[in-house]
User: Fold this.
Amino acid sequence: MAQHKKKYLDPEKLKQIGSLEIAARQVVEGLRIGSHKSPARGISSEFSAYRQYVAGDETKHIDWKAYARFNRYYIKQFDAETNFIANLLVDGSKSMTYGSNPKNLTKLEYAKFMAASLAYLTINQGDSAGVGMFDGELSNYVNPKSSMSVLNDISDQLEQLEPRPRTNVGGILHDFAHRMSKRGFVMLFSDLFDNTEEFMNGLSHLRYGGHNVILFHILDDYELNFPLNGMWKFLGLEGEGELVTQPARVRENYLKELESFVNDIKSSCAKNEVDYVLVNTNDPVEKTISDYLLRRTAMAKSR
Amino acid sequence: MSSLNLLSVWATLAAIGVAVPIIIHLLYRKNRKETDWAAMELLRRALVQRSGQIKLEDFIILLLRCLTLLLLAAALLRPVLTNKEFIGDSKVGMIVAIDDSMSMNHGATTRFENAIEAARKVTGTASPGDKISIIFLNEKDISDTEKVPLRSADYDANEVSKILDQAKKNGASNHQSNLENSIPILKEMADEIKVGTKEIHIITDAQQSDWNNLSSEAKGILGDISASIYVIPVNSENDDNRSVTSLQYVSGSLNNSGVARFEATIKNHGNNDANSGDIEFYQDGNLVSRQPLGVIESNSSKVISFLANYNKPGDLSVSAKISKDNLSEDNLRHTVVNIRPNIRVLCATDSASDGLENSTNGLFFLENALRLRSTDEGAGIQVTSVDSSDLTLEKFNEYDIVILANVSSPSVEIAEKLKTFTTNGGGLMIFAGDNIDQEKYGQAFGITPESILPAVIGNKTTASEEDNNQWTLAVPSSDHPIARVLKLIPEDMINGAKLNSVIELKPLSGSQTILKLVENNAPLLVSKNTGEGSVTICSTSANRSWSDLAIHPIYTIMIQQAVTTTTSKPGSRLAMVHSPKSISIEGIIPSNAKLQKNNIGGNDAEDIETSKLAVSAITNDSFKVEVKPEDITDTGIYNILDPQDSSLGIIAVNSDSAESNVKVAAGDALKETIGTINNVSIIVESPDEAILNKRTGSDLTSILLMLSIICFVLQSILAKYFTNKISKGETDIAASLQLSNVAAARRT
Assistant:
């Protein structure tokens, strides 16, 4: 943890920065300092085409199978080296406003920082990024652009986001799947606490449309570990009413329910080939992104 | 404690036991915290899954907590199971109370010896580890190790045996058993024993005088004692006993050289008539008279007189001793009177200047009554008569008695001098008359009980025609020495004394009415002790103006006896065994004083071990000697000696005559007296077997306490377990999920 604090920006410090854009830059800079391998290289995994080898190309990109067949050197080209579109969709429902520690980030704030950071990272490597929020409807949508100026719009829209109860999530994702004319990345940030099935159907539709879908499942540390003691009254954020109990006495069952919930989502994601990332808002944003990118790189290598 | 009270205590404790955990639970619920929560559905599902379990866990914890308090409350009540086969602590706390009163000495094999044997049997039922106390029921202080040789001690058979052997050797005391005062002590001793099974064994002759008259308060305390009380009666062969119940001065001039009459009362307490034995009278320890007792009927008394002759001043001891019987301690009784060298009387009246020959002058009659043997100037009564106006010139401490006859109004100064005079041992007599100003008397002496006057002086009243203009003197009923001597006069002679006027007397507290009138019961003679002296008021005149008493023989007898008892104070030298006594003695105060016991019958006197007696001055020519209870532990005649072994005075020490009635309470009577008390049993035979049979209790206190602690610990462990089921090695689920993601990705 001590290393993390030096290497990454704590969510608490990130909150103090205030501006999403500045925070996103710092996150990305932090990533570069922390990793020698550029994460930009592996952000795309789409095979694009072959071209003939020219001097200066890295020999590791030579397709030796093609050389065996044609006795010529061909270089394997990926989409990473082409422009791609990343759509970052943030769940703006009221359940995302929960944060166990007032000094720390809420899930929504954390999602905003992640979205802003990833948008910055995408645009910074010459690709397009757009942002949208969904709760009752898709709102505050910023069309994907590759210019750095779009970062301002993205930051503004994210900052203006007001949480509302979530409804019709499936419909929104279906509409969005139709709306995206070109295949690209869709990154979703949500706690998935309501309309989960509907949500997963929407993801399935997106994936069916040929999009690369990454689901960042954002949960608070208290939601993950449930470390409360004593008698507590729990007030539902989405109008679910209230519950009074001693958390310590139901912790075991709660954690089992949580595990089952997460496993269901994971298996659903695996089935639809959706990347699933479980996020603890206690972790620094750049660590979360870094971990994911490393994982992504590992996946790309394995192909 | 009655069973109802016990029930209400149980109910209260049970209610508290049940209520406390519930209140704690409610308070705990009230102090809950609030938080927003997103994962409500997960929480709800977890709760549904757990709710049945939680209710059961809560119920178990609540049950254990209630049980903890109930067991604790039950333990505090120190319950004892009646089944000794059952679990429990069977340690016994035993208090053996042995009657050590004088009556226990009765019999050839005395009751006390029988009591010691019974005590051996009772203590033989104890085992190592049991607690034992031994107390001898007598008048000694509880701190006296002779009274309580063992107190809450661990049972040691050898030590107990030694104590009982020594007690048997010493025999019973000459005290009263003092049962009324002993019962609270027994309760105190029972309370301090901290074992569940407590027993008090009272080994006694169950004397009627003690047990039949046991107060309801004492019975109440017996019932409140948290112990089984076993009364074990011990007896001698029979209840026969004769005793000298009293020996007292009755009449006669206690001046230098004279004769005084003493009376001994002998009572037959037995159920059979007694017709044997003698009574012996001793004067200063020497046998001077022996008379046959004659027949004394069962439960009757006989009075035998003795005339003592003396020819020198000082204290005279007289003892009466009857032939030995089953209880020798009460066969001997003593008394002491002070023989005065002479008596100096100052008489004052308002009209002394009229001349003593004037028969209207009260002093005329007083002097005639006082100077029976006026020829002997060195002995008898010396009378000085003065006019009341000259009282301020007189030094009262040069007289033994001051008589005010028809003195209208003593000044406040005179009143103060008289107060000092009587407090220091002088006697004052006041006769009424026409000059008496009752208001001024009230002002000078006061009308409160603190006044030296025995009564408040009121108005003059005169017999009405309805009473034939005269009242009659009643036969006295008082026990005052003046009344005692007048009782010897035939009744018709007493009734022959007629009075036509008296002043009203309202006796104050502490006073004694010696003589009354027949018709209206009005007091005629009222007396009161004031410090070392006394004050007497006669409600009629000293002359014939208000009555013909002055020419009646009663007048002379009354005046002589009043002067004698006022100066000699026959009761002042009598003490009760083991009781404090203060004696005033005329003379120069010595540097210290000690006691010597005089043996009766010519044997040498013996010095007894006493600390120096406390002496303090009263006046320049009188002092006070204080005798402590521990100085007079035996009956007899005691000489008070100065450092040069010269006698300063004598005291007579007797025991309480109530102990002489050795009749024991019959079984039924004893049962009626104490048998109805729940925790009291009367054991007549084989006390050891009876006690062992009755000793069925097992103390559950320690078991209940242990169970209470177990319940408490168990509920704490369960509460901890139920509320904190997270073990140290449990994996953090969040970390586990995240790791599994990475692992899954790597696998992919």
